[in-house]
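Consider the following assembly input.
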Amino acid sequence: MRESLDHWPFVIGSYAVGLIALALLIIWSYRAMRRAEKRREEMKKR
Amino acid sequence: MHIYANPKRFLSLASWLMPLLFWSGLVLSLGAIAWGLFMVPPDRLMGETVRILFIHVPAAWLGMGGWAGLAISSAALLIWKHPLAGIAARAIAVPGMVFCAICLATGSIWGRPTWGTWWEWDGRLTSMLVLLFLYGGYIALSQAAAREGGSMKIAAIFGMVGAINVPIINRSVVWWNSLHQPPSLTAGKSAIDPVFLWPLLVAVIGFSLLFGAIVLMRMRALIAEQQVEARLRRRALDDEAPLSAAPAMEGA
C-alpha cells in the first residue's frame, strides 16, 4: 500500500528550520560584532 | 589580495560592503523564497516538496562552498602568511557549519515524503554529514589555538586536508548508487525546468550574499577581539616593566 502524505507540513517544517537557524546566526554574528567593536572603542578611550 | 593585509584598510572596505551584501542578500533570498513557495507550480514527481529545494540547494552549495573558501584561506595563511587569511577561515567556519546543518535537516525532511525515509547511509548524505563533523573539528581546533595563543597552522592544515571531502560530496551521486538524484546542474547544462531553475538561481545568489555578509560580520568581530587582546597584552607588559626595573636600580 502506497503511503500518501500531505506535503505542506514538510515544506513548512523545512523553511521553519532553515530560516530560524539563519536568523539566529545573523543575530548572533551581528551582536558579537557590535560587542567586540564596542569593547575595542572602550579600550581606546581608557 | 595583499592590499587588504592591513586590517584598517580591510575594515574600511567591510564597513560599506557588509550592509550592501546583507540587504541585497536579504531582498533576493526573501524574494526567491516567496517565488518558490507561492508562484512555482508543484512538480510532476515531487509534488509540493519541490519547494524545499529553494532552501536546501543554496544551503548545500554554501556548506560545500564555505569549506572551499576555508581551505583557500588556510592555504593563503600557510603560503603567504596573510594576516587576514586565518581570520577569514575562522569567520567562514561557523556559517559554513550552520548552512551544512540546514542542508542536512531540510534534505532529511524532504526525504521522508519523497523517499519514504528520513535518512539513508548513502554516499551523498554520509559525505555531507562528514563535512558537518569536519566543520566542528575545525572550529574546536581554531578556537583552542586562539584561546591558548597558539599557532593557527594545525587548523589551517586541517582545513586544507578536509577539502578532499568537497569533490567527494560533489561526485558521490555519480560514483555510488544513491537515493539522491544525479547532478541536475552541470557546466552549461541544466536538467531543471526553467520554471524551477530561475527562482533556484536567485535563491543561490541571495543566500550567497547573506553568507558573505555574515562572514564579514564575523571577521570584524574577530579583528576587534584580536585588537583588544593585543592592547591588553601591551598594557600588562607596560605595568610589569617598572616593577622589574625597580630591583635592578636598587642593586646598582
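The mean pLDDT of chain B is 89. Ask yourself how this observation constrains the way the partners meet.
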